Amino acid sequence: xxxxxxxxxxxxxxxxxxxxxxxxxxxxxxxxxxxxxxxxxxxxxxxxxxxxxxxxxxxxxxxx
Amino acid sequence: xxxxxxxxxxxxxxxxxxxxxxxxxxxxxxxxxxxxxxxxxxxxxxxxxxxxxxxxxxxxxxxxxxxxxxxxxxxxxxxxxxxxxxxxxxxxxxxxxxxxxxxxxxxxxxxxxxxxxxxxxxxxxxxxxxxxxxxxxxxxxxx
Lengths: 64, 143
Known about the structure:
- Chain A is 23% helix and 23% strand.
- Chain A has 64 residues and is α+β, with helices and mostly antiparallel strands.
- Chain A has one domain: 3-Layer(aba) Sandwich (Glutaredoxin).
- Chain A has a two-stranded antiparallel sheet.
- Chain A starts with 7 loop residues before the first strand and ends in a 9-residue tail after the last helix.
- Chain B contains five helices and five strands.
- Chain B has a four-stranded mixed β-sheet with strand order 2-1-3-4, sandwiched between helices.
- Chain B is globular and about 45 Å long.
- Chain B starts with 5 loop residues before the first helix and ends with a strand.
- The mean pLDDT of chain B is 95.
- The chains are: A alpha+beta (64), B alpha+beta (143).
- The A-B interface holds A 1-18, 21-22, 25, 27, 30-37, 47-48, 51-52, 54-55, 57-59, 62-63 and B 35, 37, 73, 76, 89-97, 101, 104-105, 111-112, 115, 117, 119-120, 122-124, 126-142.
């Protein structure tokens, strides 16, 4: 996703090495995705669902 | 001893042969008092880079290379930043990319090296509409 748009940054975090981040985002299961500190996505979703869930953060009124 | 078996290396080398652009894996580590996973990350990257001459590992010092840290927004170590022909792809890896992180790393290298997005056309259209900074962090574990 980051590769597709310069506004997007994607970081893979090794949860056990960065316990402070895991605590901050309440990571109790993996994979867990955090978008712009606010949106949480738990587990692996199908691509379309994942993108829609993730992009709520940067786009409050998605085009229809 | 290498982290990859000879047969894994052979398969990986075949996949990486599709790479056309130069891929730089910029690794930020702290030599003194740094994370134990820094040297592991280095070994993983070196093994990947040894399989294709278009892939290079660029080592940065987390403490001293503050300008590079600021450029790529690196706040922890080890961090790997993936570049395509010297340009930031905005793909990052925090921690040693072993276990479940290894395949995503290889995919990031392939994406940077080939430019082939393996996403649905509808996804690409949706992503193109994103006009505000969007920071996605995916947490996973090695096993």
